[in-house]
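Thread: quick sanity check before group meeting

JM: Hey all, I'm pulling together slides for Thursday and realized we never actually wrote out the predicted structure for the chain we discussed last week. Dropping the sequence here so it's in one place. If anyone has concerns about the input, flag it before I start.
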Amino acid sequence: MPFLPFSHIIKLRKELRGTGAEVSTWGCDNYNDRIKQWSEICDVDIGAVVRISSVEEVAVVVRFSADRRVPLAVKGGGYSTGGYSSAKGGIVLDMSNLRRVHVEPASRMVIAEGGALWDDIDVAAAQYDLAVVGSTLGHIGAAGATLGGGYGWLSGQYGLAIDNLLWARIVLADGSMVITSADQSPDLFWAIRGAGQSFGVVVELAFRAHSQNHPVYAGTLLFSVDKLPEVVDFANQFERLTDGRQGFWFGFNLQPSSIHCSIMVVVFHNGDRMTAENFFFPLLASQPILNNTRMLPYDSLNSMLSVEDTLIRRSNFTGVDTTYHHEWAFGPRKRLSGSNVALPLDTDFIQSLYHQFDSFLMAFPEARDSSLFFEFLPNRQIRKFSNDATAFASRGPYYNVSSLFRWQTTNSDERFMEQGYMQIMRIDGMANWIIANDAPVRAVFGENVSRLREIKKKYDPYNMFGKWHNFDMLVQER
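JM (edit): ok, ran it. Output follows.
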């Protein structure tokens, strides 16, 4: 469709008159701010950005878009690097004013609006000594992260975010609103737990919360590359040693004053310092250049890697400095890619991967803020459910790997997006979610695809919500 016609904009404003919705279009003073995404590769000219203030306004915009076949995207945190929260020439539903969180301590239930960030949920739950399985980053949208599965630091104890989802309120493609749960519209509830972005706009989610009345041990360790074999060895022992309360990442990135990549490790233990230090002793005893581990409240944990809150302390090889790096700030061009690996890791392969990554960053300094991380979160609780228990079909004995390439100029887009893909392609055990939303749905959802297609025909027959996953549907004629 061409750019949203001015006549449509007038009608949209008219339909939202008297509400709290804010419609921003080209020429408005706030237009450039409203279209901004975390990655500049997703900053496109949008016909209208509607910052809504109520669930009812969501329904109005969805009906408006459906009736006129106007492309529609939903923006929560805005952290997609595939353009899934942008709609060139179309309408973007900006959910950032729907961030209220309600906690019911007696029933241990947390209810969040569709625009809530994980930080909003963590802080609200902590007031009652509760916690919800959420993302490992606090500043991203809770709805989007949940609907795709939802790995978090507590997954080793309680499974994925979708395993702790009790119900959701959704605006469907025809503008109607339903509550879906194990008892209400159970087919839709099955589908949204893994493929939720493809069935409507989730405006409210209810989570099962868990007792969290003590601080956690977490932080970052920095190693020189000669310690990589020791880090890999610890990774290979992790599955055998963990009781579900631990998690750790390791990966490669450049420090501000360094020429070559160093090894960064993030550690987590849901318990006391002594137990944590015993568990992570092989790493702590390997002479890290930087040890930034500490006890902290759980509601601060998911902000630990987020520059908007608690910024990661960076260091150089001569000692600790106080430079902070805005890895997760809105701004330059970025692309996330991912895969997974099974243990044991091959040390020689990981070392070769390090050297390939390091050489690329040396050859292209524009990408020096890029990173590659292996994410070890215990998966026994996740694997308690079968792959057909929900739409999410990645419940296996493997761990996620992610690459994040950052660069500055548009003429480098093809090079760095391709490099991000190729870096992931080199990883042994690859292909569960290699640029998952660009992959064939069969690779993402496995045997669940046929059932998902049938549910899609029922709830979104015209494929209005098709930006994330393409179920190869024959779009029905109106």
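AS: nice. Residues 127 and 188 are 32 Å apart (CA to CA). Residues 347-363 form the longest helix (17 residues).
JM: adding both to the slides.
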